[in-house]
Design brief:
Layout: H1 4-22, H2 30-37, H3 41-53, E1 58-60, E2 66-68, H4 71-74, H5 78-85, H6 110-126, H7 129-138
Antiparallel strand pairs: 1-2
């Protein structure tokens, strides 16, 4: 449902926030993020530029520069990342890609997909970056595959 770009964006924001917490305010460089999350650096650079331009995260130049999240950015819902990268139309599109799919004229997956789509939108709306990294900090959840 989410694009690969959006998945990378969410993982990157969570990684930066987690590293900032673990290393007390340390900024994360693009190479570090890319290698840790196994995301191509050039592609990641474009994603981070978009996130920074939309104030989802911040960046600083120089020897101690890198990417970081201020307190307000840490309180953003994950949905704000999705909105910037994929837009919110993904939560109203047909699961089969039909242009005219509605409760009056449903596709075969309409009801099940609408339920899944609504649940995902609610989860992304209700979880903030700050909430989500608490599981990372405890070691209960992970951002990388085994």
């Amino acid at each position: 449902m989410l694009s690969k770009t959006c998945e990378y964006a969410i993982r990157s924001v969570l990684y930066v926030a987690n590293q900032q917490f673990i290393n007390t305010g340390m900024k994360s460089g693009i190479k570090q993020i890319s290698e840790s999350l196994n995301i191509p650096a050039h592609f990641l650079g474009k994603i981070l530029q978009t996130l920074t331009r939309h104030e989802i995260m911040s960046s600083a130049k120089g020897p101690n520069g890198g990417f970081y999240l201020n307190e307000q950015q840490q309180r953003n819902p994950l949905l704000s990342i999705v909105e910037v990268i994929d837009g919110l139309k993904i939560f109203s599109r047909c699961g089969l890609g039909l242009e005219k799919c509605s409760s009056e004229h449903p596709c075969p997956l309409h009801n099940d997909f609408a339920s899944y789509r609504d649940g995902m939108e609610n989860a992304l709306r209700n979880y903030t970056v700050e909430d989500t990294i608490s599981g990372l900090i405890k070691g209960d959840v992970f951002l990388t595959s085994l």
